[in-house]
Design goal:
Structural class: mainly alpha
Order of helices and strands: HHHHHHHHHHH
Shape: globular
Largest sheet: none
Number of strands: 0
Number of helices: 11
Distance between the termini: 26 Å
Length: 262
């Protein structure tokens, strides 16, 4: 029933959702000379800095594939999750003035943040494909399967956004705690390094991380030109659906109490 109500309200409040996403764009690029171009430059500049550090200082490499392509394929996926979940976490608390004045379905706020960052994510695919072509990695027919990983990542992030936005209303310390969690999560996800460099005893534990499978799904297609294993397909789908359902349930159970805490 709650899912049905969400679908009905999304149609009813679609204009509001568009306005919230539009507002975020205007706020983010206000008084910025380059404006939206930063969405293209930022991942490239980040990748260049990290590539120089990890390939030259820490001597990281990925035999058989371009390290730049390997690094960026992990960065764009993880950066979307990190930015979207962080913005979603503060979305309800940051919308206190609106919640006090008019009735708005509260899940609109974390959803709008995930969509806003999602548009930026799509823009980062432009420099991503430039890097693929420039490094000789190229493009193959299996790239048509990439939206599957992107949708799974979006669902997982939205579920986390629902959980975080609900918890942060009651526990403001979550803003600081989550910063530490994301930092740890960054290093536990094979973004800068190949998971094969980790001891075989630890690899199964790292593979419990859903983000590993989203990133691995993309790399299997982009870097190695092959269809991901059925286990990877299933893991991406199951992890995203489970987290989204948990997020919806947590948000539904706590949303009526938000007004007393925000």
């Amino acid at each position: 029933m709650f899912i049905k109500n969400i679908a009905i309200n999304l149609k009813k409040y679609s204009f509001l959702l568009q306005q919230l996403v539009s507002r975020d764009f205007k706020v983010k690029y206000k008084r910025s000379v380059l404006g939206i171009i930063w969405s293209l430059l930022y991942p490239v500049l980040t990748m260049v800095v990290m590539a120089i550090v990890f390939s030259n200082v820490f001597k990281m490499s990925t035999p058989g594939v371009s390290y730049l392509a390997y690094l960026l394929s992990g960065l764009i996926m993880f950066n979307y999750f990190s930015e979207a979940s962080n913005l979603a976490m503060s979305s309800v608390v940051g919308s206190f003035s609106l919640l006090n004045k008019i009735y708005i379905p509260k899940y609109i706020f974390p959803l709008s943040k995930c969509l806003f960052v999602g548009i930026n994510f799509l823009l980062t695919l432009i420099p991503f494909y430039v890097v693929l072509i420039a490094t000789g990695t190229g493009v193959n027919i299996f790239h048509v399967m990439l939206p599957y990983a992107f949708v799974c990542l979006f669902m997982f992030t939205l579920g986390m956004g629902f959980i975080l936005s609900a918890v942060s209303v009651f526990l403001r310390d979550m803003f600081y705690i989550y910063g530490i969690i994301v930092m740890l999560w960054t290093y536990l996800t094979p973004i800068m390094y190949d998971i094969k460099l980790i001891s075989e005893q630890l690899q199964p534990w790292l593979k419990l991380n859903p983000l590993y499978h989203y990133v691995n799904f993309v790399r299997e297609i982009v870097l190695y030109g092959r269809i991901p294993q059925p286990f990877t397909w299933a893991t991406c789908a199951i992890s995203s659906i489970v987290v989204l359902i948990i997020g919806v349930l947590v948000f539904k159970k706590t949303q009526d109490k938000f007004i007393y805490y925000v």
